[in-house]
TrEMBL record:
Name the record gives this protein: Uncharacterized protein
Annotated keywords: Membrane, Transmembrane, Transmembrane helix
Transmembrane residue ranges: 12-31, 56-76, 83-100
Organism: Allosphingosinicella indica
Domain of life: Bacteria
């Protein structure tokens, strides 16, 4: 249960962080002056005319979101699994986003590799918490011998 909840929290925080980084990056490298891009064709056309900056903002924001979400997931769970759940989820999102926006193959690769590298960094930055140590602390508080004479 802890793994599932920490993975879910990590993914939610990853998307919030990604949106924040994309908003900041979008104000530095705007895609288009037209804020009413609603149709798929309009978005693709605006992105084809955009420079490298706005495209990199999307890729880097997905990687930074995966880093923030992965750090939180590992901190909450103490294990590696939730970090990779967040990283793989963000890599899949990055791939879908880059594919939808018809980015060049190099940026498509970056959209997948960036979150995976962020997951690797998050896994190494936060130490793995030994759950056995927590169980030992509980055992020290209530020794087993004290309960030996109690009826079942």
């Amino acid at each position: 249960m802890r793994t599932f909840l920490s993975s879910t929290a990590g993914i939610v925080v990853a998307f919030v962080a990604m949106a924040l980084f994309a908003w900041i990056g979008g104000s530095i490298f705007p895609i288009s002056g037209n804020a009413s891009l609603r149709e798929t064709d309009q978005i693709r056309a605006a992105f084809e005319m955009a420079g490298v900056g706005p495209k990199l903002v999307i890729i880097v924001s997905a990687a930074l979101g995966a880093l923030v979400g992965g750090v939180l997931a590992k901190w909450l769970s103490g294990s590696r699994g939730p970090v990779w759940a967040v990283a793989l989820f963000m890599a899949a999102y990055g791939f879908a986003n880059a594919f939808f926006l018809a980015m060049p193959p190099v940026m498509l690769l970056g959209a997948v590799v960036g979150p995976l590298l962020a997951g690797m960094i998050a896994e190494r930055v936060v130490p793995t918490r030994a759950l056995a140590e927590e169980d030992e602390d509980l055992a020290e508080e209530q020794p087993l011998e004290a309960h030996r004479d109690e009826p079942l």
